[in-house]
């Protein structure tokens, strides 16, 4: 999924089905690459999560005092996130969504939900930033020219002038999916918007993608020099 669970239809070829993870959105505003953020990561699980999980949504901040909270859904039909049964959280726990409704405002993928066993604002607040997953096999196989964003993790990155790296994550900080790339010779990772302009070639079968980063993307000196 893209960020774990959405599905990308080969950059616009096949249309996704209503209950499948949806296509990535282009970044809002100037598509300016950023360095990887470290402060907003979801809670780490006590044990590593199984590698076959795909992200379907992410809890946001509490809503009201009775345990409701916001949820950003990554499915084509936002409320379909509640139809997959128990979901595995990024903290390793299981969560059941009971009541889902559209949140106020103009973001169709933002819901207000209740979670089984969560009855106070304090309990809801503890869930903020937890991502919700289902086993990959639950979603079936991607169709032709489609792939899950999670398939991008681990791909070799090829760029101009012999640039080399590897995709380590596909985060979304609110403006669309980004590729977090571990660059050879650098300790910190770099972020690049996952758009056709910056990532013209995605070869899942070949284990690689080609990037066309903007001028100045790697102007800062490397750790080696």
TrEMBL record:
Record organism: Enterovirga rhinocerotis
GO biological process: ribosomal small subunit biogenesis; rRNA processing
Its job: An accessory protein needed during the final step in the assembly of 30S ribosomal subunit, possibly for assembly of the head region. Essential for efficient processing of 16S rRNA. May be needed both before and after RbfA during the maturation of 16S rRNA. It has affinity for free ribosomal 30S subunits but not for 70S ribosomes.
Claim: Acyltransferase is one of the keywords in the record: no
A molecular-function term among this protein's GO annotations: ribosome binding
Designated name of the protein: Ribosome maturation factor RimM
Domain RimM N-terminal: 56-137
Subunit structure: Binds ribosomal protein uS19.
Biased composition (Pro residues): 42-51
Bias type Basic residues, positions: 1-10
Family per record: Belongs to the RimM family.
Domain notes: The PRC barrel domain binds ribosomal protein uS19.
Region listing for Disordered, in residue ranges: 1-55
